[in-house]
Amino acid sequence: MRQPPPPRAALAFALAMLVLAVLTGSAAARQAPPPKPKAKSTPGRIEALTMDGSRIAYDVAAGAGPKARCNAVFVWNVARNTTTRVSSRQTCGADSTSTGAGVRELALAGGRVAWIVNQGGNSESGDYLYVSTVARPGEHVLASAFRTGDTSGVLTGNWLGGLVGAGSFLALDHWATDSHGAVSTARLRRIGPKLADLAEGAETMTARSTDGKQVAVLRADGSVGLYSTRGALLRTVAPSSAVEVALRRDYLAVLTSTRTLEVFNSHSGRRLRSWHVAAGATHLDLAAGLAAYATGRRVHVVRLSTGKSVFGARANATVSAVQLEPAGLAYALQRGDRPGTIVFVPMARVLPRPPRR
C-alpha cells in the first residue's frame, strides 16, 4: 500500500537539517589544519636538488668502500609520496674520477629530468648531458663536451653548463674556450629529442633560471639577459651587481654582492624595489609572489611586494639547496659527507592564503 506523503513541516525540518549539515561540513573544511611538512632521508650526501610542480629531483653521491652504493638521481613526487630512481649504470660512476665534480647540475621539467655529469683527470675534463623521464626511467647521453689542458688552470675545448628547466622546457649553454681560456663560441640550446640552437654569442651565457616561458641569463659583465624560449632576446636588465638570479612570471629577482635583493618587473625590466638580506644569503628561488633563500642553517621566505617575512625555518644542519613552487617549499639539509635530508613544506603552511600561480 502506498504511503501518504510526509507532512509539509517534516519536509521543511529535513531540508533545514541538510542545509545545516552542509554548512557545518564547510566550516569544518575551512578550519582543517594545513597538511604537515614531509621529510625524506637520503642514503648519502645530496649533491644537487631541483623542483618543478610537485616533483623534487635530487642526486645522491656515491659512498666509500668496495661494496658501497653508487651515485644515483631520484625523483620524489610529494603529492603521491612516491620516489623513482631515474638514473642507471653510467651515472652510477659519476663520482669515480679524480678531478670531476660528479652530478654538477640538475634540472626538472614536468616528467623530464636532465643532469650534467662532470668527470676528469689531471689534463682533461668532460661533461655529459643525461636525460630521462619519470614515467619510463632510463638515462641516455644526449650530448658531451671535452677539453684538455691543466684542470687547475686553462682548459681548451668544449663545455656544457647553465642547465635550467620548468614546465615543458629544458635548456643549457654549450660553449668553447681557446688556448687562453677565453670564450670563442657560445650557444643557448633547447633540450628535446636532440639539442636545438636558440641563440648564439657570449652574451647567452650563462642560463640560471627559467619559468618555462622566459630564460634568465647571468652574463659575465653582471647584466641579466632575458630570452624567450624561442631564443629571442626580450630585454637586458642591469642590477647593481649580481651573484644569483631567479625568474618567475612577472618577477626577476637578483641577489647582489652588497647583501641586497633587487626585484625587477620581468616584462619591462624596471626595478620595483630592493631590501637588505642577511649575510651569506644564497640558493634564491621564486614562486607565488614570494622569494625563498637560505643563510647557513636558516630558510627565509619573503613577500616580493614588500620584502616582509612570511615564513622561516631554523634547521639543525646546513641548508644546501632551496626550491620554491606553488606546491610548496623544498630544501636540503646536509652535514658534511653524511646522508642528507630533504624537507617539503606545503604552500598552505608557507602562505595560508592560496598562492598566485
What's the helix count?
Answer: 3
Overall residue-averaged pLDDT value: 91
Can you tell me the overall shape?
Answer: globular
Estimated helix fraction: under 10%
The tally of structural domains comes to: 2
Poorly predicted runs: 10-24
Record field, number of beta strands = 28
Which radius of gyration do the C-alpha atoms yield?
24 Å
Please describe the biggest sheet, giving its number of strands, its sense, and whether it closes into a barrel: 8 strands, antiparallel
Oligomeric state of the chains present here: single chain
Into which percentage range does the β-strand content fall? over 45%
Biggest sheet: strand arrangement: 6-7-8-9-10-11-12-13
How does the helix and strand content classify structurally?
mainly beta
What keyword list fits this structure?
mainly beta, four-stranded antiparallel beta sheet, single chain, 2 domains, 357 residues, Thrombin, subunit H
